[in-house]
Amino acid sequence: MKKILLISVVVPFLPVFVFAHGGPMMDFDELQTGPEMMEYLEEGTLGDDVHEEMEQLMVRMMSGKMTEDEGVRISEMMDKYPGPYGMMMNRLSRGGSSWQMMSGWNSMMGWGIVWLWVFILSGFVWLAAGILLFVWLFKKIFSKA
């Protein structure tokens, strides 16, 4: 009887523990796309002044209009801030508005639809497992009475 009670208490809460860390890490309503989120994180890491300077230097570098002094400065910044530099390089090289990595329903046309179906089907599996557990418990409890 103790095993049945333990199973009936623990099993219904398994989905809660499985999806406990699957929720959104940050909730920023104004940030709708991946590039916007990346730029926000870059600014938070570097500060406004350094971020603006690095972004201007990178735009000049990508356009081929960089001077030698600017090249030295961007090299110093790359050494000092490798993480934000890599994020900024990725964001700027792909084009800020055309790259929609985390853009809600726009991503549903690619792998997003696959993950949506995986999520829906896993919900049905948990529902079926819960129903079967309930039926099994019902039979176990009332078959001895």
UniProtKB/TrEMBL annotation:
Keywords: Membrane, Transmembrane, Transmembrane helix
TM stretches of this protein: 114-138
Highest taxon of the lineage: Bacteria
Identification of the protein by name: Uncharacterized protein
Organism annotation: Candidatus Yanofskybacteria bacterium RIFCSPHIGHO2_02_FULL_41_11
Upper classification of the organism: Bacteria, Candidatus Yanofskyibacteriota
